[in-house]
Amino acid sequence: MNSMLRSARTLATTASRSSILRRGYSSESVPDRKVAILGAAGGIGQPLSLLMKLNPLVSNLALYDIANTPGVAADVSHINTRSEVTGYFGDDQLGKALEGADVVIIPAGVPRKPGMTRDDLFNINAGIVKGLCEAIAKYCPHALINMISNPVNSTVPIAAEVFKKAGTYDEKRLFGVTTLDVVRAKTFYAGKARVPVAGVNVPVVGGHAGVTILPLFSQATPKANVSEEEIVALTKRTQDGGTEVVEAKAGKGSATLSMAYAGALFADACLKGLNGVPDVVECTFVQSNVTDLPFFASKVRLGKNGVDEVLGLGPLSDFEKEGLEKLKPELLSSIEKGIKFANK
Ligand SMILES: NC(=O)C1=CN([C@@H]2O[C@H](COP(=O)(O)OP(=O)(O)OC[C@H]3O[C@@H](n4cnc5c(N)ncnc54)[C@H](O)[C@@H]3O)[C@@H](O)[C@H]2O)C=CC1
Ligand SMILES: O=C([O-])CC(=O)C(=O)O
């Protein structure tokens, strides 16, 4: 029995060491990193907590929600990986959850039901995000913020305004998580192009709602014979990916599992950037000069201070150029709605 336990333990240690080595570190050089998840007991929060517990770059995992986090934290904490896990709940414990955090992931807020747009969530989620960002400004002003709560096109500008008011705003540290759009675009493209999905790359730019989601299939790799008609259909399916899940769940919420996967990928990229791993590039919604809009999702190189460089759009097809012009009014109005809310 003892030898069985010993070999299981050796396996776990070897797995964690080799995954650290795969990420470009020597096993001695991985710094301590605290990740806080706000909304950790929710549909996204729980599987995201699990995935972050599996990430060997995390040394301290703080799980915060308005309720139910002690159970989630107790459960996840039994997994024999590197991080210490602590559950926090209620306003009184928010400061402790945030103190010392390097990355704060925010999936707090209500999800859509069939028939709703992401903007229909604004009235509830804007207030939730504002309150959480006020606490972040106070307790961990230098953390990288990964905003998942919808409508992302407005919640990111809200966060920026809250941080500006608190005097802590650093545009390099605020990210709207649009990774799920990229994950979907890759999956749908691989299916149509009949290529192995593991090698597929597709940038997705713009924002995170309906037509503001603009996948750039003209830049997809590997190149494949995909017709114009199929590109139009792939674009529409990527833009409607969230709605597809909302309708399939029929009133029981929106994407949680694929979102947890996407959120874990993006947080991992942020941690790698912080740790100095070179050439970490992800699409994300950030303060931007790439277009005339103040916030825009595009490829971003991540570094030790968050955003290292916001990369340009690259060459667009005529269909994508048209999509870009079409998305601007809606994206701008969502950004302005967020700014107005934060300053009222
Ligand atoms: N960026 C993206 O690609 C995606 C964003 N989302 C968004 O993520 C959000 C969460 O979705 P789900 O996890 O499915 O919802 P959910 O309702 O299952 O979970 C939300 C959690 O937030 C918690 N919460 C509410 N107020 C809070 C506060 N003040 N502080 C801390 N926690 C608080 C709730 O207690 C709940 O546990 C929604 O706004 C949804 O639209 C969902 C999928 C993809
Ligand atoms: O569609 C929703 O409401 C949730 C979301 O943002 C997504 O799945 O992309």
Automatic annotation (TrEMBL):
It catalyses: (S)-malate + NAD(+) = oxaloacetate + NADH + H(+). Its EC number is 1.1.1.37. Pfam families: Ldh_1_C, Ldh_1_N. Keywords: Mitochondrion, NAD, Oxidoreductase, Transit peptide, Tricarboxylic acid cycle. Residues 34-176 form the Lactate/malate dehydrogenase N-terminal domain. PROSITE patterns: MDH (PS00068). GO terms for molecular function: L-malate dehydrogenase (NAD+) activity. GO terms for cellular component: mitochondrial matrix. Residues 178-341 form the Lactate/malate dehydrogenase C-terminal domain. GO terms for biological process: malate metabolic process; tricarboxylic acid cycle. Homodimer. This is Malate dehydrogenase. It comes from Linum tenue.
